[in-house]
Amino acid sequence: MTRGKREAGLSFALPNSPFPLQSGFTLIEMIMVIVLLGALVAVSSVFIVQPFRAFDDMKRRAELVEAADSALMLMTRELRAALPNSVRVQSAGGRTVLEFIPTLSGGRYRATLAGDGSGDILDFGSTDTGFDVMGPLPSAPGPGSAVVIYNLTAVGGQGNAYASDNRAPVDAAGSSSTYIALAAAHRFPFASPAQRFQLVSSPVSYVCDPVAGVLTRHQGYGFQSSQPVSSTELGAGDTAARFVAGCDIRFDPGAGTRNGLVSIRLSLSEAGETVSLLQQVHVLNTP
């Protein structure tokens, strides 16, 4: 009777197998799988995230290099057209200020009358109101321009365009590509050995302020005998670069006809990435 009941009941064992048939998994097995998967994800994430992080760092460095290079190229372009002997550099209050006078054009003035006695020469013995240009300028002088003759220094004494003894505002309405009319009678202190003159605009200053993190360009504050360095003196400026961490600007004025050299090292920093670029610019010393 007992044997019949056993045969009639359900059996969960495979034929000839000592082990019972199992389905699903235990709680311990599930926990082990979760732990192993978590460890696998943690290990693999290091290899997955790192390339993306490296790409972001590389992109940030490239953007910083591009920003620094653009600012230095702008400064270089303007410095190469600076009036000879007009560059001056000063540091104050953690800021470094580079100032120069940009030239617009230039030529040679008439120093002697033509063979038939005609022409308007530039008189250095007394005040004069204008002179002929030997060879036409590319275009007539514009409003706000000034003529400078034989600029020798930027730090005092005679022959200093900042002090205005060798600089005179131009009367744009009365001038042309072949004649320069002065806004008022002026006597220039020195004649140029090569009869050269330059047409200039108002001074330009670049202010590097690592504390504020910006490099700014200023113009329109006018000619000043002493170099302006404060925000009050320079007024508002245009941003040339952001994320400025430091800068080193030096000027070697050279001697005689040897070109001066402006050295600019600009450092930009963002999110732990820092780039430093060095630019050297030759500036003319021959007035």
Keywords:
disordered N terminus; alpha+beta; 22% helix; N_methyl_site; Type II secretory pathway pseudopilin PulG; 3 helices; Pilin-like
Write up this protein.
- With 287 residues, this protein is an alpha+beta fold.
- It has two domains: 61-100 and 203-283, no CATH class; 103-200, no CATH class.
- Helix content is 22%, strand content 31%.
- It has three helices and 14 strands.
- It has helices at residues 2-8, 27-79, 231-234, and strands at 88-92, 95-100, 103-108, 128-132, 146-148, 167-169, 179-186, 196-200, 204-209, 214-219, 238-242, 244-252, 260-270, 273-283.
- Strand 1 (88-92) and strand 2 (95-100) form a beta hairpin.
- The longest helix is centred in the first third of the chain and has 53 residues, at 27-79.
- It is rod-shaped, with a radius of gyration of 38 Å.
